[in-house]
């Protein structure tokens, strides 16, 4: 990718966002030029827009094996979908219970709404995660109570790439009173998702993580899950989400879904090859490092989190950026914070050097072996130079 896109930089931060695929841009351009109607009106132009919207919804529903197209509520993205699932479940089920279960290393779009609910008197149980980024299913079973109304556990962690046992979690939650929600933003388009098989009640995804447009996503809401609209106004989305529908973005998102789901297994194998090439190169050149979590087992294929021992992540990230290599120290949503990654703290503890010495690299459909070679060359140059030099940046 770095050879011909994004001003010749090597972009390996696809967990943060992805460049829109040319096919997506073409699809959206066509719809912006030719489908201007309001999909909620019944006139000629509105009917054309409505058909495009519903065709796109069908693609979204099919991609996760939803039983019905109308189980898909189109939103502005993962954050809105997460907030809707969390807050509206709490609002709708307050009389049944006020207990919610999640994990300590969820995305902020889960943790912050839960903090709001705690201030309103709800009780939240935060499950621990181990050094591989996995929960103890026995702990989940112990945490479930008659007044538990929601279990929200992410499918793939956005910082370290650990793939949680969603099927097993669904089996545990299904017989209880709780609804099961999963933030699948980092998983969607890279690992198979089947909401029926995994007994998922609510699921959040976002378009910009799979080379689609920003500011669009969806919330899967199983039939029978009822709560009021989070965004109040008109009666769009069958009265489940107000606001004039963004038809071009929906069409672009559907195109991106088609591109990614055409051959998930082949794409996953390619990502694993890129990760292995990176790790093999670091080992061959004597770089002192460790992978956070595991390399393959229980991990999503596209994300790798690496502890460069004794090397401040801020200094290394800056030097890589100056060499045209774009990675990340953690989640894009918290990258401006001076606090350590809450994900790494949850896995390794506040005092672990990993929380200050880790970088995340995440691959996308345009990355190549040549990109990894460029990354390796930069790491081989900078890691020994920065190792144990005492420069800890702003801490």
TrEMBL record:
InterPro entries referenced in this protein's UniProt entry, alphabetically: Aminotrans_V_dom, Cysteine_dSase, EF_Hand_1_Ca_BS, EF_hand_dom, PyrdxlP-dep_Trfase, PyrdxlP-dep_Trfase_major, PyrdxlP-dep_Trfase_small
One GO MF term: iron-sulfur cluster binding
Top-rank lineage group of the source organism: Bacteria
Domain EF-hand: 127-150
Keyword Transferase: yes
Catalysis performed (reactions): (sulfur carrier)-H + L-cysteine = (sulfur carrier)-SH + L-alanine
Keyword terms of this UniProt record: Iron, Iron-sulfur, Metal-binding, Pyridoxal phosphate, Transferase
Cofactor list: pyridoxal 5'-phosphate
TM annotation in the entry: none
Family: Belongs to the class-V pyridoxal-phosphate-dependent aminotransferase family. NifS/IscS subfamily.
PANTHER family attached to this UniProt entry: CYSTEINE DESULFURASE, CYSTEINE DESULFURYLASE FAMILY MEMBER
Annotated protein name in UniProt: Cysteine desulfurase
């Amino acid at each position: 990718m770095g050879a011909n896109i994004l001003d010749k930089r090597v972009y390996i931060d696809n967990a943060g966002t992805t460049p829109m695929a040319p096919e997506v841009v073409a699809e959206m351009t066509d719809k912006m030029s030719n489908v201007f109607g309001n999909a909620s009106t019944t006139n000629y132009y509105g009917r054309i827009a409505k058909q495009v919207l519903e065709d796109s919804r069908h693609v979204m529903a099919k991609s996760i094996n939803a039983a019905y197209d109308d189980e898909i509520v189109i939103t502005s993205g993962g954050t809105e979908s997460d907030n809707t699932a969390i807050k509206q479940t709490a609002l709708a089920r307050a009389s049944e219970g006020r207990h919610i279960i999640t994990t300590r290393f969820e995305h902020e779009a889960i943790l912050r709404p839960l903090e709001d609910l705690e201030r309103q008197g709800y009780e939240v149980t935060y499950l621990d995660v181990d050094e591989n980024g996995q929960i103890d299913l026995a702990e989940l079973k112990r945490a479930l109570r008659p007044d538990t109304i929601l279990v929200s556990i992410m499918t793939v962690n956005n910082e370290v790439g650990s793939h949680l046992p969603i099927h097993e979690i669904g089996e545990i939650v299904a017989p209880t009173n709780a609804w099961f929600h999963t933030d699948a933003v980092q998983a969607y388009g890279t690992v198979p998702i089947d909401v029926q098989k995994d007994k998922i009640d609510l699921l959040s995804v976002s378009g910009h993580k799979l080379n689609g447009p920003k500011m669009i996503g969806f919330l899967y809401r199983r039939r029978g899950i009822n709560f009021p609209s989070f965004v109040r106004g008109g009666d769009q989305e069958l009265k489940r989400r107000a606001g004039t529908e963004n038809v071009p973005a929906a069409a672009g998102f559907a195109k991106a879904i088609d591109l990614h789901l055409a051959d998930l297994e082949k794409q996953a194998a390619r990502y694993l090859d890129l990760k292995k090439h990176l790790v093999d190169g670091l080992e061959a050149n004597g770089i002192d490092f460790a992978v956070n979590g595991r390399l393959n087992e229980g991990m999503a294929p596209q994300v790798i989190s690496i502890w460069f021992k004794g090397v401040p992540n801020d200094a290394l990230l800056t030097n890589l950026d100056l060499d045209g290599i774009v990675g990340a120290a953690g989640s894009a949503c918290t990258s401006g914070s001076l606090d350590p990654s809450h994900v790494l703290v949850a896995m390794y503890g506040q005092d672990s050097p990993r929380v200050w010495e880790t970088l995340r690299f995440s691959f996308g459909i345009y990355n190549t072996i040549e990109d990894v070679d460029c990354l390796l060359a930069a790491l081989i140059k900078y890691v020994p130079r920065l190792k144990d030099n005492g420069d800890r940046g702003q801490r």
